[in-house]
Amino acid sequence: MTDIFKSGIKNIIKGINKKDYSIEEVVNHFIQKVDALDKFNLVSEKTYDEAVTLAKKADTKSMEERRPLEGIPIAVKDIFCTIGNKTSASSNILKNFIAPYESTVTKNLKDAGAIVLCKTTMDEFAMGSASDTCNQGNVINPWTKDFSNPLTPGGSSGGSAGIMAASGTCFSLGTDTGGSIRQPASFCGVVGIKPTYGRCSRFGIIAFASSLDQAGPFTKNVEDGALALTHMVSYDNKDSTSSKEKMPDLFKNLKSGIKGFKIGIPKQYDINGIPAEINELWHRGKKKLESLGAEIIDISLPHTKYALPTYYIIAPAEASANLARYDGVKYGFRSGQKFEDLNEMYCKTRGEGFGKEVKRRLLIGTYVLSSGYYDAYYLHAQKVRRKIIEDFNNVFNQVDLILTPTAPSDAFVIGEKVDDPISMYLNDIFTVPSSLAGLPALSLPGALSNNNRPLGLQLIANTFREDLLLTGAYALEQEINFNSEPL
Q: pTM for this one?
């Protein structure tokens, strides 16, 4: 059989249609692959029985009946509700929750024929940058060679990034609040796409920060990313933040090249203390784009330095409001201890149900929303966010795309930064600004570090210009020709 694990989604579909292999054979091959990855703790739940049943049914369909992604196995971050499956957001407070409905994004993909093979582990409630706050233990990057010093896959979508790096499914789903798709994509050497805020419905995705959360795919290459994203997006009247803006045809100009494109290089992203190899990668990326006919333009995003503190006020504030629903009354975990009143039940349930990082962010969020501090912190942060958006608006009058590094380092050893939350938060330094502005952004593998670990380059486009983003990314991907594998 063809090496279907690495041949790309379109080639797998072509092989199925030519009857080189059946959909059931494809699904069983990926099941074996996922089972071989157990040591990395990438998967929170395996949905094999359902997957095989759907594969057998798909095999009985005629060519005319088959849908665009018929039989394509995918992995889904455990923050998307998938009906009849556990959906816990890797938290003890939801560890036994069975989703009674389907998220819009996964429904769209299932309607297109995709088959969910497994749910993937993640940072609890998507709060983290190392996938080390999961209730099922640490997620391990498949690039790890020494299990006595395992590498983080990044976070919060570490399981989805890791399973993609190891070719465990055809593509996987993550969510990005401040970089939770792009940073793990960089650490795992895969493509990770955060579309424009509002492109993908948030209905059925467990909320962290409602004005920031956005679903996106992990894929092995940019073309697969375009295909996955095409079938994820939709307007949804169940999500008031869902956009009616029509998605352009992502394949129309995907391979047309970037001659004449103007690429912005923000001077504020040249930060003291960033490893030399990150800056070298960024410089090589500029040179490659220039060699493809793009014009490199130095730009300024003057409020960039305020992005990280702004994010770590707004995101915890919204989390504080969203996670107030987990009270031990309606659903989810309830403390088994005795309590005298309702308030004590809330305290004990949340104290036992939430992990350390979630509690830290909820306390920060509750503080900045409290009487006397709302104006000084939260309201002020929203004003700064507006300035950051204006910076990008001004720049996109001059350029088509922006090029930056994705992360300030390669994958680090799990636990290396556990006692230094500020250092951990700095992992998002290159990804947070575009999240605050709601812009589409993408990470693609650019090179291996001196430690033989992946390093990513980030491209950012203006709102609703995923077509330009993917065209630029495809051209850069072809020029870089990154083909290293972790296993």
A: 0.96
